[in-house]
Amino acid sequence: MAKKNQNKASGEFLFEKRNYTIMIAGIIIILIGFILMAGGGSDDPTIFNEDIYNFQRIRLAPTVVLIGLAVEIYAIMANPKKK
Hints:
The radius of gyration is 22 Å and the shape is elongated. It contains two helices and no strands. By secondary structure, the protein is mainly α. It has one domain (17-77). The two termini are 39 Å apart. The longest helix has 23 residues, at 55-77. α1 runs antiparallel to α2 (55-77). The protein has helices at residues 17-37, 55-77.
């Protein structure tokens, strides 16, 4: 008789609820950063719009995206609470 596979998956998730909650928060922060980057275009391609170089699109939005990425890294690296 063949041996049964003893290396079965334990059915546990890789992360705990706390990690997934932090990940969702990081994704929301990244989405807010991309929303802040949107816009500033012109309907007429022959007219240049200076609004594309404002503080919100050049400094704030990339900073918010980087903060969101840092939150994602923290969510992955955070140790689950021991029981």
